[in-house]
Amino acid sequence: MPRSDTQPAARAETVEGEPYLVSLRPDAFDALRLAHRDGWLPDLEGLEADLRAILPPEAGAPRRLATATSSPDMLAVRLGPDAVAQLSRRYGAALRIEPDIAFRHQAGPMGSRRLADREIGLSAAPTDTPALHFRIVDDEGAPIPGVRLWAEGVGLGTGGQAVSDASGRAILKLETRNPAAVRALNLLPGIGFWPRRLLRPILHPTPPGAAPRLRTLTLRRLEAPFGALPLCASAAMGLDRAPALTLPGARGVRVAVLDPGAARQSFDIADADCSVLVDGWTPAGAPPSPGGALIASAAPGARIEILRLGPAPRASELIDAIGWCLATGIDLLDLGFAAATPCPALSATLARARAGGLVVVAPAGDTGGAVSYPAAEPAVLAVGAASAPGCCPPDAPGAARQALRLADFTARGEDVDLVAPGVGLVLPTSAGPAPLDGTALAAAGVTAFLASLLQTDPALARAPRSRHRAHLLRVALLERCHSHGLSAHEAGAGFPAWDPLMRLDTESDCPIPAMMPDDQALPGNRLAV
Questions:
Q1: Other residues' Cβ atoms within 10 Å of the Cβ of residue 64
Q2: How far apart are CA 245 and CA 240, in angstroms?
Q3: How do residues 261-279 score in pLDDT, each as one tens digit?
Q4: How far is CA 465 from CA 157, 253, 405, in A?
Q5: Chain segment 70-109, per-residue pLDDT in tens
Q6: What is d(CA 216, CA 229) in angstroms, rounded to the nearest whole number?
Q7: Helical (H) or strand (E) element with 473
């Protein structure tokens, strides 16, 4: 299209700038009004040229994004304040600039979700307060180093934290002289042990200058009956009873997992085969993916493909990944990341993905409050985390003792579609098997449930990928959910069960199917075509 001779002003100041997503608004009226005023119609090529003219050479070229359409319609770029002002003056209402926000993976070591942003304060307490001396050992009395202790209570400040040394000893210095203020004591070990949570512990402090009064605490190893399999989540949902073979003539199910594991470079649509996309979940030399392992164990017939995006990907990387999934025929996308604020560009991409038949499953968030994004989007299945009885020791943080319960950390509200096991799942990590929790793991369990439905349900297995199939798959999932006493306002349709007559048996090590009275099926809060 003809362009005005008026070019942007001189290059913007040399600053690192903030990451932005830049695109042209689809509103034709804004573009035509700009054309009438200045005599040119904006397009993506012209916008990219203007960005190159504004930015200093060291800033790097704008990156085009594959936004689930036949051609890119968005640019990712770092801009300083001057550049933003120049673009706004030139394009006016026809331009859309929004922050390229960062996302965080919603999973981590069991019991640590509420400590994600908390630092250890070893010297915050006054020197004249009593100290609590502990020795952390295993079942055989061997010391366990590196165990993080965290005391919860009123008025404790940051001093109620410590880490055990090589001899297993740890000293807690509180900001209070009253040890009864400690309402709970959390022990968060590394690989190979279950964490532990002691409620209302009886503590014997050591006065300043006195001989230490040592208390020994024992941690349980990751052995049977708890955590013997990463399948306790599968058993809780009845996936161990799902048919092992796919229906004759069924299409192969392809599942993509967005993983925070380190990659050689950020995911890029042009370099999808350069060790960034890993075919299968246990390739030689690849770091393990807990979510991929969970899906592969629960839906063994599905093809799992891991897209490694780094520890904190931005919206532009998620947009690229979703575009790649649509272009290559992915059926299910397990998107384990979340952010507190919405991203309109990502929302538009997710809407296009739903129209293309891609089913996106996302964690509701580990905030304990409102549902995070993109799970709050109507085009996404939002999954909260629940704790199933029998999957971990009863004194583990967040363990369910007698009945299914929502995890303390899970987001809740009307935007939640359903919940799934997300507490105390023993899965592979780069350092070895460890008990993990998080709504990202619950989302992976739901993704496995959907993969099993696609492989075995006659109405779905042979159907091509389409918006209609995605709707039928969503309905089939929510119809298999039961409340189990959970509030629909907090848990949506409830907990999925492969067997419609399944309940959680609290007397076994892992929940098993059993007869139960018919429960009212909840259709879900956000069932959308």
A1: 17
A2: 12
A3: 654 333 332 223 322 333 3
A4: 54, 10, 35
A5: 445 788 888 888 888 888 887 777 788 899 999 999 998 8
A6: 29
A7: helix 467-479
pLDDT at site 14: 43
Q: Considering the entire predicted model, what is its pTM?
A: 0.83
3-class SS at 33? helix
CA distances from 270 to 20, 475, 485 (A): 21, 35, 48
The answer to whether 451 touches 239, Cβ cutoff 8 Å, is no
Q: Which of 163, 171, 164, 161 is nearest to 143 (CA)?
A: 164
Q: Which of 153, 262, 236 is nearest to 449 (CA)?
A: 236
Task: Give φ, ψ of 183 to 5 degrees.
Answer: -90, -25
**CA angle, 429 then 431 then 432, to 5°:** 65
Q: How many C-beta neighbours within 10 Å does residue 225 have?
A: 10
Q: Where are the beta strands (DSSP E) in 157-219?
A: 161-163, 169-173, 182-188, 196-199, 214-218
Max mean pLDDT range (78-92, 99-113, 156-170, 228-242): 99-113
What is the C-alpha to C-alpha distance for residues 116 and 93, in angstroms, rounded to an integer?
40
Q: Which helix (H) or strand (E) holds 15?
A: none
Write the pLDDT tens digit of every residue in 434-487. Answer: 888 999 999 999 999 999 999 888 888 888 889 999 999 999 999 999 888 888
Task: Take residue 160 and report the two structure tokens written for it.
Answer: 């109620």
Contacts of 228 (CB under 8 A, 6+ apart): 426
Contact 259, 307 (CB under 8 A): yes
What is the distance between the alpha carbons of residues 119 and 318, in angstroms, rounded to a whole number? 29
